[in-house]
Amino acid sequence: MGRALLIAALVVGIAVALLGTGRSRVVAGAVATGAAAPRMLELYTPWCPACAEMKPVVDELAERCAGVGVRIDAVDVSREENERLAERYDVGSVPTFLFLDQSGSETSRLVGAQSAERLRRGLEELGAVSCGGPVSSERPRPPAEKEG
Predict the structure, then answer these.
(1) pLDDT tens-place string over residues 40-90
(2) What count of other Cβ atoms lies within 10 Å of the Cβ of residue 147?
């Protein structure tokens, strides 16, 4: 167990560059599955419109949830070094939000653009923590259809 934990810590230390918020962007390599904290992985590609729509929502959640025992990591699955991660979790479309427990096992997933409230609830269920009230950066909603 000690060796596996050391390897996991090294992989996380090498593979993840921390941003100013509680969100991390995976810049190379795979995400370690033996993480010390529950986490949400946001799997995205740079050219995905729904992924771009979700960025401010996920950034705000990362700020609200920083320091409460859950992590948010963003993984660009179009990068060659992250393809195995997408294959491992059988990701068919982006954005995909994977909720992983402390051992790295998937507990739930959401696919496609999501409401900020749904992501927040998923994070809170995952870590049994509170990330605060409603999130202000709700994803834009399409205009209502007019009856004519």
Answers:
(1) 999 999 999 999 999 999 998 888 888 888 889 999 999 999 989 899 999
(2) 4
Q: Report the side by side order of strands in the sheet with 96-100.
A: 16-18, 23-26, 71-76, 39-44, 96-100, 106-111
pLDDT digits (tens, 9 = 90+) for 128-142: 677 776 555 554 444
**Tokens 């909603």, located at residue:** 141
Taking phi first (over 0 means left), then psi (-120 to 50 degrees means alpha), and beta for anything else, what does residue 58 get? alpha
What residue type is 21 in one-letter code? T
Bond into 95 cis (ω within 30): yes
d(CA 111, CA 7): 30
Paired tokens of 117: 């409230």
Q: What letters, b where the CB count within 10 A reaches 16 and e where it falls short, cover 87-98?
A: eebebeebbbbb
Indicate the pTM of the whole model: 0.69
Rg (the chain; Cα; Å):
16
Q: Which residues pair with 98 in a beta bridge?
A: 41, 109
